Amino acid sequence: MRFWSRLMIEREGVGERETGPGFPFRRPSLLPLLFLLLLSPALAQSVPAGWPDPFGMKFERQAFTPLKPRAAVLPNGLVVYLIEDRSLPLVSGRMYVRAGNYYDPQEKIGLAALHAQVMRNGGAAGKDPDAVDLTLEGLASSVEVASNTFFTEVSFSSLTDNLDQTLQLWSEIMLRPDYNPQRLELYRGRTLEGIRRRNDQPVGVAQREFIARINANHPSGFISSTQSVQSITRDDLAAFQARYFRPRNAVLALSGDFNSGEMLAKLTRLLSSWNTGAAELPRLPTYNPAPRPTIYFIQRPVTQSVVYMGLPTVQAYRAGYAELDLLSNVFGGGFGSRLFDEIRSRRGLAYQVGSAQQQGFGFPQPFLAVSISRVEKTVEVVQAMLDEARKISAEPVSADELELFRENILNGAPFRFASRQAVVERQARVHLLGLRPGYYEDYLEQLTKITPESMLAAAKRYVRPENFVIVVLGDESKFEAPLSRLGNVVKVEVR
Is the pTM of this model over 0.90? Predict the structure, then answer.
């Protein structure tokens, strides 16, 4: 179980890819070795007496100069970002198409994900699926297609010497997919099996139900079903591609061993016939930023309870986001945070506990807290999490807390520029998401100006525990007290 994975889409602040039903926590701010040294007396006694206290160590903030990709626009309107890198004979690229899960019709939830699988594995330009795979294998190249919240991504990796052949296959898979009927049924079957088994993981169940409840009646909260996946046809896949795969609805990110001018000329020839008409993006329903505060309970015969709680706040990089992002670190961002120290370390109630301010683009996302706890302490854990939320919304954080977690964020900033491909891909996502130039540098500058008072103002405005949506998964027969003691409880039948 990947406790440190995040919750939604790629995080623009640090470039982490959101995958899977794990916790939406940041990585721990201290090395696991230091954690072991503090907890193990035997190890602690072996540390030389003259060594400094790891928690008291101070480091100068590292200055860095971000890489700037070159930007160009092809004659068909496709925006391309490029960074040359001659260190290895490799070229990588990723096309982002504004065609994510949010655009699934409500009666066909799962369309974007199934489309991505069959687009890559269903043959292209008259070549059968096996022939495509064998050709790529012979070239030592890869082409992959994946979908997420906002985008369908079509990526490739190639040796420089085999770039022309790889680009040809990449473009055919993207623009001339065959959607082989047998492969459609294969991946439909795999998707249906995933739906059948998705309730096997308690954390995934609680996470999914929390997302559905806090984003009720909005595509961000829709859940696929056997019926919705069964209804998807080959014609639906072809229509999805025809509707959204347009050059003005996409951005290409490239890095590697190439000359930028030659690469742009090559792409101009290769993509000259791509349909340049406008993509017809659907109108999404209005997002409800104030879902009804309720405790949703899921009965499961488990030995550990899972708790999600929170409420929508602000969109990413808008006013108040920097304060909430830092506040979520102080509240539950790992070692030294309020939730970790009180609920896990001092009281020993939870195996994992933490919080995060999720990133929302186009609509708010939640400030949330999560725990996995001893089932016989479920009600106490929920109460303790709510108590800590009330405290952080009523009293300023200490100057030491603020500085510790601010430095964690600021000192981690250079790592988002460590890979040229990561930099150019981030720039492409930023373009499609409509973020303004310099948004991240402004965010870092805002962090340096945050005070305990400004954090408290944001907490009072946005972090209101009385309005939390709460999802609890556990075995009610083992709870130490009725969950109804904490508020109105609605029992949920898992889908």
Answer: no
